[in-house]
Design brief:
With 354 residues, the protein is α/β, with parallel strands linked by helices. The chain has 2 domains: 114 residues, Aspartate Aminotransferase, domain 1; 220 residues, 3-Layer(aba) Sandwich (Aspartate Aminotransferase, domain 2). The strands form 4 sheets. The chain has a 5-stranded mixed sheet with strand order 2-8-7-6-5, sandwiched between helices. Helix 1 runs antiparallel to helix 7, helix 2 runs parallel beside helix 7 and helix 8 packs parallel to helix 10. The radius of gyration is 20 Å and the shape is globular.
């Protein structure tokens, strides 16, 4: 600890991201990246954006991207907020919407960045235990709160909360903001997103990312959708922090991605198809696999420890994610890869447990 730090810095427990190894010979199934490249239209748009205009600041309001997203979701630009990855968007949400008198609520098994944001912004929180089957129990959220947030599908479990359950949560918490973190929603059923509820509930904010289903994790583009007054609050935070969160190349890529619906649908469906096959193969090997609506699966084997399987796979140049945390330390979180990568994994696991 440095004597030059502000007092709170030493108390922070920073987020630990998934490993990004230098060894490119690994089969990398640990960080839920898309196994397919960005759309060719996106690549062309980025090439065109690398020109003399890079000497100029990008448009601070990202008007074209906001209009594109609004058209895609049948909203208005005033209902769209964009930022440097959904993690930055979430940081502004915690700072601008969750610093309330009551503690906020989120699941005990969930995105591990949530308590980090709470530590950063001195926000009180209560972790609400998931049910025994790792579903979210709405009855546990019937209490005073300063806001509610949860991923849907949840991470790292992959389980999906139905839209009618989300609507019930919104109705019962009309005096607080409910944030649905939909990083993986595009790998669920087509009508699973809470975006369809935005015009009915002004306390709903939906956060999405272009890192997963749109294969742009390396560009850091995220956005939030909600009522105009919620978005205005986020804009005030953003413009007090960084007026230019997205550069020319990011903006061009994002617009091109939303405009290339055919490529998006094709790769999305391929990941879903591969996920279903992977689940069948894991179950054949004796794994219990939680129902997943994401681009990953969460699985455990009754006869083998999760840490041991993770280590053994690493020895065969396959990396997955293991969380050494209560209730889930026996599970493996496995990103859905290409069919070839998935078969490498199954072959390795067959040797280990078959």
């Amino acid at each position: 600890m440095s004597k030059y730090w502000s007092d709170f810095v030493g108390t922070l427990d920073p987020y630990t991201p998934g490993e990004q190894p230098a060894n490119t010979n690994l089969t990398k199934l640990n960080t839920n990246e898309n196994p397919y490249p960005p759309s060719p239209a996106v690549m062309e748009a980025m090439r065109c954006a690398v020109n003399d205009d890079l000497r100029l600041y990008p448009p601070p309001n990202a008007d074209l991207l906001k209009q594109t997203i609004a058209d895609y979701f049948q909203l208005t630009p005033a209902q769209v907020f964009v930022g440097n990855g959904s993690d930055e968007v979430l940081a502004h949400v915690f700072n601008g919407l969750f610093r309330q008198a009551q503690p906020i609520l989120f699941p005990d098994i969930s995105y591990s960045f949530y308590p980090v944001y709470c530590g950063l912004y001195a926000i009180e929180f209560n972790k609400i235990p998931l049910a025994e089957d790792f579903t979210l129990n709405l009855d546990d959220y019937r209490r005073a709160n300063g806001g509610i947030i949860f991923p849907n599908p949840n991470a790292p479990t992959g389980r999906l909360l139905a839209l009618d359950a989300i609507e019930s949560l919104l109705q019962e918490n009309s005096d607080s903001v409910v944030v649905v973190d939909e990083a993986y929603i595009d790998f669920a059923d087509a009508n699973a997103s809470a975006v369809s509820l935005i015009d009915q509930y002004d306390n709903l904010l939906v956060v999405q990312t272009m890192s997963k289903s749109r294969a742009l994790a390396g560009l850091r583009i995220g956005y939030a959708l909600g009522s105009a007054h919620l978005v205005e609050g986020l804009e005030r935070i953003k413009n007090s922090f960084n007026s230019y969160p997205l550069g020319h190349v990011q903006l061009a890529a994002a617009v091109a991605s939303f405009n290339d619906r055919d490529y998006f649908e094709a790769t999305r469906k391929q990941v879903i198809s591969s996920r279903e096959l992977l689940v069948d193969q894991l179950e054949t090997l004796g794994f219990e696999v939680l129902p997943s609506a994401a681009n990953f699966v969460f699985a455990r084997h009754g006869a083998y420890l999760g840490a041991d399987l993770t280590r053994s796979l690493r020895e065969q140049n396959i990396i997955i994610r293991h969380f050494n945390k209560p209730r889930i330390d026996e599970f493996l979180r496995i990103t859905v890869g290409t069919p070839e990568q998935n078969q490498q994994l199954i072959a390795a696991l067959t040797e280990l447990v078959g």
